[in-house]
Design goal:
27% helix, six-stranded mixed sheet, Molybdenum Cofactor Biosythetic Enzyme, Chain A, 599 residues
Length: 599
């Protein structure tokens, strides 16, 4: 079986670009050998257990390899030997290395040994591309908007295969064995190594959800990102383009609503209620006058009336209005017993007053009043037990006043998200620093902090972080431990010092939901999440261009913060408008620009 698989692998070499034009006949012969072996080889590479006894028997019936293949076998085996030894994981202890070296030396002298291991590095050593097959076929970035669970990893001859991609659990069974083959998922070392797939050599287009607990990721003091192989970095981003609509939906879907806390109503401005608010009392709690004037009996009609006193706001009248009498009232004052209407002062005429002019004694009512005129009955505005503010209400000044009206001084609200902001780049200086050659002042951090604070959210200033994986990891650790959302600017494009995505993937085991958005500006915008002790942290890695940073912050970060604080519809308001001048932009991309504070 091993020799058959090796022959199949060697056949693949014939299809590389340097041999395709000269080996047509050999290619036809290769098809005869490789096609029957491919389904079995793929099954072995997939994370599944496969019984292979019957397949071995079928493969043994195939004809022997051609001389061309036989001549190539020795060199291929030697190269495989070198590749395997050069790409072993750092976690492999000395004993395991000695065992593997001894076994490989033995296999070198006995190439037909039935229990030899076939590793991913050995397969990739002589092929132009190593493709991890997805269900239904390989995934090619750009061909489909939704990459499959298993991703395509394209590694050329010039790129080292990452240590973590080597599968030490897949082996070809002896001919007489009917047991199940071991898969990578059954090998603890393979599982650990695979989870550390280096994005420097073979990054993941769409990082999957991480399994297990992330409670220990904050303890690492040094980054595992390899920065030495600059020449082998990818020239094209491995992250597929995501439409802006899909990116926005993804952000909202992955954004949690924060927990609940109890605050004083005076601190409720901008907060979202986590409970319904009910009135404890009627408003008004008594029949109240709507206007300044006289409380009268409607049945008396127009005429001259004796004034028996006054009712002022804040006082409860003690006298009863009798026929032929009225009582002077002010706006909001209780209506005395016996009166059922109010006549405004403009519809009266004073007939008699006290000698010192301090009291009104008699007045003429000039209009016919109707019962209930200019009186607010009990509970006219709010009735006892009525829901005055619903759960999910975004409180403004009026809502704060209403809470005071109904006497609710302690309210349950959703917590405000705490946002940490940092800028990345060796070229950045603080605004107060003098410029030096090759340096610029950092403006993104100030702009982003002000943008977040404008919406009322508490912020943490993480400062400037250099283009170094260890420094990035340390700053991200601080942000994750202190904040709910981390915003970075810079370090997310294709530069040789753009390590941020690798740190998120390799060190933090973050789930990168998208790494590029089809918009201008803001193409390399990245969104990731990390779950720590049951709490989800959001990471927005924004471009370093100042316009890109502020545009993407308003489009993605602010809506996410609004959802986190419990706002039912966090989407921004979109207004269609017609521009006065011709604007040319890239077809199918969405341009954004600032003009008079309008996006």
């Amino acid at each position: 079986m091993l020799s058959t698989l090796r022959a199949a692998v060697l056949c693949g070499v014939l299809f590389s670009s340097d041999l395709l034009s000269t080996v047509k006949k050999g290619s036809q012969e290769c098809f005869q050998f490789i096609l029957p072996a491919l389904p079995h080889a793929i099954d072995l590479l997939r994370e599944a257990t496969v019984r292979v006894k019957s397949t071995h028997a079928a493969l043994e019936q195939l004809p022997s390899p051609s001389p061309l293949m036989a001549n190539t076998h020795t060199n291929t085996h030697t190269n495989t030997h070198t590749m395997e030894r050069g790409t072993q994981c750092e976690e492999e202890d000395d004993e395991e290395d000695d065992r593997r070296r001894g076994q490989h030396a033995h296999n070198h002298h006995h190439p037909q040994h039935g229990s030899s291991h076939i590793t991913a590095a050995a397969i990739a050593a002589k092929t132009s591309h190593a493709v991890v097959m997805a269900k239904g076929g390989p995934y090619l970035p750009g061909n489909t908007p939704d990459p499959p669970t298993h991703y395509t990893c394209s590694c050329t001859h010039d790129q080292q295969i990452p240590d973590s991609i080597i599968s030490r659990g897949v082996q070809v069974l002896p001919r007489d064995s009917a047991s199940l083959s071991s898969t990578p998922s059954e090998s603890p070392r393979a599982t650990q190594a695979t989870s550390r797939l280096s994005t420097a050599s073979c990054p993941t287009p769409k990082v999957q959800s991480r399994c297990g607990s992330n409670e220990n990721i904050l303890r690492a003091s040094h980054s595992a990102v390899d920065i030495s192989k600059v020449a082998r970095r990818h020239r094209m981003s491995p992250f597929p383009l995501t439409s802006m609509d899909k990116a926005f939906i993804t952000v909202l879907e992955m954004t949690p609503i924060l927990g609940i806390e109890v605050i004083n109503y005076r601190d409720g401005l901008g907060r979202v209620l986590a409970q319904d608010i009910y009135a404890k009392d009627n408003l008004p709690p008594f029949p109240a006058s709507v206007k300044d004037g006289y409380a009268v009996r409607a049945a008396d009609g127009p005429g001259d009336r004796f004034i028996m006193g006054e009712s002022q706001a804040g006082q409860q009248p003690t006298h009863t209005v009798m026929p032929g009498q009225v009582m002077r009232v002010t706006t909001g004052a209780p209506i005395p017993c016996g009166a059922d209407a109010v006549v405004q002062v403009e519809d009266t005429e004073l007939l008699r007053e006290s000698e010192d002019g301090t009291e009104e004694l008699e007045v003429r009512i000039m209009v016919q009043a109707r019962p209930g005129q200019d009186i607010r009955p009990i509970g006219h505005d709010i009735r006892r037990g009525e829901c005055v503010l619903a759960k999910g209400t975004h409180m403004g000044p009026s809502e704060i006043g209403l809470l005071a009206t109904v006497g609710v001084t302690e309210v349950s609200v959703h917590k405000f998200p705490v946002v940490a902001v940092m800028s990345t780049g060796n070229e950045l200086l603080n605004p107060e620093d003098d410029l030096h050659p090759g340096k610029i002042r950092d403006s993104n951090r100030s702009t982003l902090l002000a943008t977040i604070q404008e919406h009322g959210y508490p912020t943490i200033n993480l400062g400037i972080v250099g283009d170094n994986p260890d420094d990035l990891l340390s700053a991200l650790h601080e942000g994750i431990s202190r904040a709910d959302v981390i915003i970075t600017s810079g370090g997310v494009s294709m530069g040789e010092k753009d390590y941020l995505k690798q740190v998120l993937d390799i060190d933090l085991h973050a789930q990168i939901h998208f790494g590029r958005v089809f918009m201008k500006p803001g193409l390399p915008t990245t969104f990731a999440t990390v779950d720590i002790d049951g709490a989800r942290k959001l990471i927005f890695a924004l471009p370093g261009n100042p316009v890109s940073a502020v545009v993407t912050c308003n489009l993605f970060v602010i809506p996410a913060l609004r959802k986190m604080q419990g706002i039912l519809d966090p989407r921004p308001t979109i207004i269609k408008a017609r521009v006065r001048h011709t604007h040319i932009h890239t077809p199918n991309s969405i341009p954004y620009s600032f003009n008079s504070n309008i996006l």
